[in-house]
Amino acid sequence: MEVTMFYQLEEETLSRSAITALQEERLKKVVRHIYEHNDVFRKRLDEAEVYPDTFRGLEDLSRLPTMSKKEFRDYFPLGMCCVPKNEIREIHRSSGTSGTPVVMPYTAGDLRQWADCMARCYHMAGAVPGDVTQITPSFGLFNGGFGMYHGARAAELFIVPAGAGNTEQQIRMAKTFGTRIFTAVVSYAPRVIEVMREMGETLPELKIGIFGAEMFSESMKKSISESLEIDAFDIYGMTETGGVGTLGQDCPYHCGLHVWEDHYIVEILEPGTNQVLPDGERGEVVVTSLTREALPVIRFRTGDLSRVLSREKCPCGRTHIRIEPITGRIDDMLIVKGVNFFPSQVEQALLEIPGVYPYYQIIIENHHGIKDVRVNVEAEEGVTSYTIEKKLKEVLGFSPKGDLFKPGELPRQAGKAKRVFFEEEE
Fold this sequence. Notes:
- Helices cover 29% and strands 25% of the residues.
- The chain has eleven helices and 21 strands.
């Protein structure tokens, strides 16, 4: 396999000792920055008895208090910002569907950092200057579209800023301009594949797909790669870390997500505690940003579940830590009939069945306090309910009921797919 191009060769191939030294320097600097420029951070550090003049860097990392979405919401909108308002050049925010949204402000320096991280991801996927890249995440407060755009500008790509929706037009544009790189939320790819088949179109110049914003099971990745005949990449980043691509992505060897350690420190903590887990053990991803100016996160509990796979040099040549693709979120865990499971496990199992489509619903029913689960699935003729129940029992330990639907009968969404539904009955 040909080694991919680098956007910042020196930074992406630093030795382990150089990465550690850089993290030491930048961690001390960011702790001083938040202490001196924000009252909320200063109070939290004072309560933890952590002071910039005596802070020893990585050795004292575990002494820093953790934070979560709660702090963002408690001090909405800019109560944790560490720069004057006149230095802010852009904001993005979460959807806020489950409460007060998370707002992330950006300085000019933050926008450059975001663009550099995202450009690294493009190059790692095999992009070269001049490649046509079609950006389908929405352009607005959601960070996906603009993150892909900032990175594509830095990587000197030919940008088709399509935005979300109108799948037939997306396919025509890709055909017209010879799109080589397609970016989207994970669940949009199956819709593109479906509409391409209906139109009888192919996209022979399309070679790279960069997908994010949702869980990306191996079954889904395989299905997308084979259907579009592309190499599909799992990109990682969130509003709190500065947006899509800020944390990293997998490379063409697909042996874990590379995390940009010169910009972020990643720890894996035992869920519900502050216990740091050894490499190889799965837990909650906790992130500290080292180079963000407006609102750095310090030991931010992401809720994502992963584990450290390797700190050794990757076959692609990059030296930064690799973590397992995100397998689920702590708050996504479902408990039915005494069994704990994640929606991603259901997806992984379903898409291993030939003839099953990547459209499904997990319906949690609550009858007088007793929970049950129903899984509705789209599948081709010949797939039976018995086959689906048997596969799900192997994975979940029980057989959920459900219904089979013909292809096209379950609803489609233009943005992130809604997979889990709750039905209450008193």
